[in-house]
Amino acid sequence: MIYDSQYWKNDLQKNVFFLFEKLDQKVWREASFAALEKRVMLSCYIVRKLAEASKIPQNLFSADVPLYRYKNAAKVVDPINFHKVDELYEIQNAQKINNPFSYIVNQIIHSFIFWFAFNNDGRLEGILFNSDRSKNKELYMIKVQDLIDALSPIAQCYISRAVLERNEDGELVVVQAE
User: Fold this and answer.
1) What is the mean pLDDT of residues 165-177?
2) H or E element in which residue 149 lies
3) I need a surface site. Which of 36, 79, 88, 94 has the fewest CB within 10 A?
C-alpha cells in the first residue's frame, strides 16, 4: 500500500517530462532506447500502484485512450520471431480504437513485444506493444503524445477528499474522489 503518493507522483511527473523531451530526439543510441523503455515501464507500474492504493481518481485510470490495433497475420508469435512485427501483424491495416488506460498499462507491464515507432523524420511517434496473452491476436500502438496526455493528469492530481464505502464483499472502495 502506498502511504504518501506525492513521491510516486513526483517521479511520474519527471517521467512525463522525459517522454516529452524525447519527442524531438533524432539520434538514438542503445542507451536512449533502454532509458525510454525503463521510463515507460516504471510510469505504467506507478500508475497501477497509485490506482490500486486509491491515490488517483478511478476515472483517470479507466479513461479511454486512443490506440491503433494491428491484427495478427495468422502467425504464431514467439521469442524467435517477435522482432518481425511487419510480418506477424497487418501493419498496413491499422484500426483506430479506444481502450481504458488501465488495459494499456497492464499490456505494457506484461509486454511480450515492446518496440518504438518512428516517423519519417526519425522522431519518436509511438510505442508498439502487446502482452504474452494478446501477442497471437493483435499488436497495439499508442502515440507517445497520447501516453503523455494520459499520464500528466495522474502525475498532477491531488485528492483532497474521498468517500469510501464497503462493497458486498466487505472491501472498502472509493465511491468519490475530488
Assistant:
1) 78
2) helix 144-156
3) 79
Q: 1 by DSSP, 3-state: which?
A: coil
Are 56 and 50 a contacting pair, CB within 8 Å?
yes
Quote the CA–CA distance of 151 and 134 in Å, as a whole number.
23
Confidence grade of residue 160 (pLDDT, cut at 50, 70, 90): low
Q: Is the pTM of this model over 0.70?
A: yes
| Burial of 96 per CB tally in 10 Å (0-12, 13-18, 19+) | exposed
Query: For residue 132, is pLDDT > 90?
Result: yes
Task: Tell me which amino acid residue 144 is.
Answer: V
Cα–Cα distance between 126 and 124 in angstroms, integer? 6
Please give the mean pLDDT across all residues of the chain: 93
